[in-house]
Amino acid sequence: MAKQTKKQQQRQQLDNEKLYTMDEALSTLREHASKKFDETLEVAMNLGVDPRHADQMVRGMVSLPSGTGKEVRVAVFARGENAEKATAAGADKVGAEDLMEDMQNGNLDYDRVIATPDMMGVVGRLGKVLGPKGLMPNPKLGTVTPNVEQAVKDAKGGQVEFRVEKQGIIHSAIGKMSFKDEDIKANFKAITDAIVKAKPSGAKGKYVRKISLTSTHGPGLKMDLSEVEGA
């Protein structure tokens, strides 16, 4: 039998049934954090919804006050003055038909795709390309907008999208282990508040059922639901 590492032994000693406060969870994750790189912190919320039904879909955008700690690559479909504004705001790629052809050729290394309303005729031809990756611009998410300058700044400044998966779970990164505790807490509150407020009309029974916090190589810790307002 292979000899267990110290980290594996530490993880086995954790109580799998314990419900952690935010302070306890952060302290525990820091104890198990890698010394070699800056791990990402992620929250998972198990919701009482079935997203196969339209009235139980949970999706939205929220700005994390402390940012994500990750560089966000943004592509913008715009022309003329709007294209100039998007470039000035820090977009990584701005274009029209040329950008569409670039994406059709497989160049999709972006975290967010934004478009002005007049460009949706061009963007619409990318449905089969952008849709499966969750990158299709959407007016409800603010990624189809005449104000591309603000949309680019929001994307670069820590705005994240959340979307419930088939199993009724939402996963979202909320920062890096190098963040201060108060910055992680602010991000945690922002994302959980947004998800609670996004409760759909078709949700029946208990909405927020479980919450866990983990890091890239850390254990998954069950959170006390009292850490989330409205849960």
UniProtKB/TrEMBL annotation:
Family of the protein in this entry: Belongs to the universal ribosomal protein uL1 family.
Subunit details: Part of the 50S ribosomal subunit.
Keyword terms, alphabetized: Repressor, Ribonucleoprotein, Ribosomal protein, RNA-binding, rRNA-binding, Translation regulation, tRNA-binding
UniProt record, GO biological process: regulation of translation; translation
Tagged with keyword tRNA-binding: yes
InterPro entries: Ribosom_uL1_bac-type, Ribosomal_uL1, Ribosomal_uL1-like, Ribosomal_uL1/biogenesis, Ribosomal_uL1_3-a/b-sand, Ribosomal_uL1_CS
Annotated GO MF terms: rRNA binding; structural constituent of ribosome; tRNA binding
Function: Protein L1 is also a translational repressor protein, it controls the translation of the L11 operon by binding to its mRNA. Binds directly to 23S rRNA. The L1 stalk is quite mobile in the ribosome, and is involved in E site tRNA release.
Protein name: Large ribosomal subunit protein uL1
PANTHER family: 54S RIBOSOMAL PROTEIN L1, MITOCHONDRIAL, LARGE RIBOSOMAL SUBUNIT PROTEIN UL1M
Cellular component aspect of the GO annotation: cytosolic large ribosomal subunit
Keyword Ribosomal protein part of the UniProt annotation: yes
